[in-house]
Amino acid sequence: MIKMFINGAAISLLAMAISSCANNVEAEPKTHLKQDTPSVSRVWQYPHGARNAVSITFDDARASQLDIGVPVLDKHNVKATFYVMPGPVAQRLAQWQAVALNGHEIGNHTASHLCTGNFQWLRQQNQGLEQVDLQWLRDDITKTNNYIENNLGVTPRSFAYPCGNTFVGRGIEVKSYVPLIADMFSTGRTWLDETANDANYTDFSQLTGIRIDGMTFAQIKVTLDALRFSNSWIILAGHEVGEKGIYTIDAEALNALIKYLKDPANGYWLDTVDNIATFLKNNRTEPN
């Protein structure tokens, strides 16, 4: 997806930074903020008495998700959210149809996977979000919805912003496409965020996504612990599944993660993005 290098040391430092931020957030001045009563007074609870919710998500409809990731998920009877694009799905259509039929969530990740043109793989194609407008993007997303509906038999309710970018245009002409996603989908997920979603406050069209690529289970657990504030919803985002790499979660790490999250003693509710979002919309107090 994005061509960048993140080694194990950097990932560990990121997890430490997240933990430090979580531990020290109360020390920051709040005199300029309106107090959000609903986030303080919880009048609902996650299913099965869980303290926190977690969704496991994957982007791009990559082959290793079918070959390695889905078997791990199915072994544990866990449903994930897959944000897909028509091109890769068409290459393995029968397998993706089986994924949808098996109850995994299928979300929209656009047809073009257009990100900021600062990425050199897009510069080589003279493409970038800076060069398009909202109507162009709506057409691209609609084309993907139509493909998913016609070929996988589901209507996508969830969207993931490619590269986590949420804009089109340049300078004073820049426009957010978050309102477009809010109009077309129940949820939109970003990427490379530093915090989980406050279930009583989060904007469903800008759900945070936490990277799991290149991380061991121990490193992922450090991140989970750092983001485990009251009723938080942690959305984990990955790409390849196989041997640990820059854009790959190791299959054993994924297996260990699922076992940990499924253990009732650890207090997590593990489900798809749409299932958790629907529960929250039906149960939480709307934020001020």
Verbal overview:
This protein has helices at 8-24, 37-40, 63-75, 86-91, 93-101, 120-123, 134-152, 178-184, 217-226, 251-262, 273-283, and strands spanning 52-59, 81-84, 105-108, 158-160, 167-168, 175-176, 187-189, 197-198, 210-211, 232-238, 240-242, 248-250, 268-270. The chain is an alpha/beta fold and 288 residues long. The relative contact order is 0.19. It is built from eleven helices and 13 strands. The strands form four sheets. Strands 1, 2, 3, 8, 9, 10 and 13 form a seven-stranded mixed sheet that branches. Strands 4-7 form a two-stranded parallel ribbon. A two-stranded antiparallel sheet has the order 5-6. The chain is globular. The longest helix is centred in the middle third of the chain and has 19 residues, at 134-152.
Concise overview:
Helix content is 39%, strand content 16%.
Which geometry do the CA atoms define? globular
Largest sheet: 7 strands, mixed
**Low-pLDDT windows of residues:** 1-17, 19-41
Q: H/E series, N to C? A: HHEHEHHEHHEEEHEEEHEEEHEH
Give the proportion of residues in helices.
25-40%
Q: What value does the Rg take, in angstroms?
A: 19 Å
**Overall pLDDT score:** 89
Please identify the structural class as seen in this structure: alpha/beta
Count of DSSP H/I helices: 11
Number of separate strands: 13
Terminal CA distance: 36 Å
Report the β-strand fraction as a percent range.
15-25%
